Amino acid sequence: MNGMPVSEFLLRTRRLPSRVEPVTTVDRKLLTRELLLGFWKVHILHHAAEHPVVGQWVLSELRRHGYDISPGTLYPLLKRMERNGWLRCETEAKAGPRGRRYYHLTARGAAVLEVVRETVVELHHEVVEEDAAHARLRPVRLVARAEGMAPSHKPTGKKKPAAARRASVRVGRRR
Predict the structure, then answer these.
(1) 103: which residues sit within 8 A by CB, 6+ positions away?
(2) Residue 33: band (very low, low, confident or very high) from pLDDT cuts 50, 70, 90
(3) Number of Cβ atoms within 10 Å of the Cβ of 18
(4) What is the per-residue pLDDT across 98-151, written as a single tens digit (0 to 9) for each?
(5) Domain 27-135: which topology?
(6) Phi, psi of 101 (to 5 degrees)
(7) Which residues have C-beta within 8 Å of that of residue 7, sequence separation ≥ 6?
(8) Pick the residue with more confidence: 75 or 8?
(9) Measured between alpha carbons, how far is 144 from 161 in angstroms, rounded to an integer?
(10) Are residues 53 and 47 in contact, defined by beta-carbon separation less than 8 angstroms?
(11) How does residue 85 score in pLDDT terms, banded at 50, 70 and 90?
């Protein structure tokens, strides 16, 4: 990609429609809505499988992992997971309507958690392990800095002959 941003590279290779604007910063709200919400649900299911969870404890647990989530986001999420049949809620008997609510994992929630665990293992393999393996295979450019060593090759601005460009592309695609 010769130092160009990924978004520009994708636009030039026509993998993205030309009308797509390059993204330079992460839209936190969009990231939260589209991806992190699912991670939070996985955390909740995982911990509810270990023991009943309480909303305030879930807030502190998610914050411990770096997710700054508000009660206004968490409690509707717990309610939605309850409506989906993944959690069962019990309120303390003598505490009234504002009593502490304990969320227990249901059989349906356990089945969902099992599917999620399998998916996470496969996803981790592809995104983390394979990416690390590919990173080890990428060529490393060494720059000579010690005295007496030849200076590194600096581009002259001239294009390589077509055969040399094709050969370098083939080498880069090898796995």
Answers:
(1) 44, 48, 52, 53, 54, 55, 78, 81, 82, 87, 88, 89
(2) confident
(3) 7
(4) 788 999 999 999 999 999 999 999 998 888 887 777 776 666 555 555 555 555
(5) Arc Repressor Mutant, subunit A (1.10.10)
(6) -110, 130
(7) 16, 22, 23, 24
(8) 75
(9) 26
(10) yes
(11) very high
Has residue 86 got a pLDDT over 90? yes
- First and final CA of the chain: distance in angstroms? 18
| Beta carbons of 41 and 81 less than 8 angstroms apart | yes
Residues 52-78 as b or e (16 or more Cβ within 10 Å = b): bbebeebbebbeeeebebeeeebeebb
Q: Can you give the residue ranges of every domain in the chain?
A: 27-135
Question: In the numeric block, which tokens belong to residue 69?
Answer: 């989530």
8: which 2 tokens? Answer: 């520009």
Say what the alpha-carbon torsion angle 26, 64, 121, 35 is, to the nearest 10 degrees. -30
What pLDDT, on the 0 to 100 scale, is given for residue 174? 45
Q: How far apart are CA 77 and CA 39, in angstroms?
A: 12
Look at the chain and count its residues: 175
- What is the C-alpha separation between 155 and 26, in angstroms, rounded? 33
Q: Which of 128, 2, 103, 120 is nearest to 49 (CA)?
A: 103
What are the CA-CA distances from residue 5 to residues 14, 47, 172 (Å)? Answer: 14, 39, 18
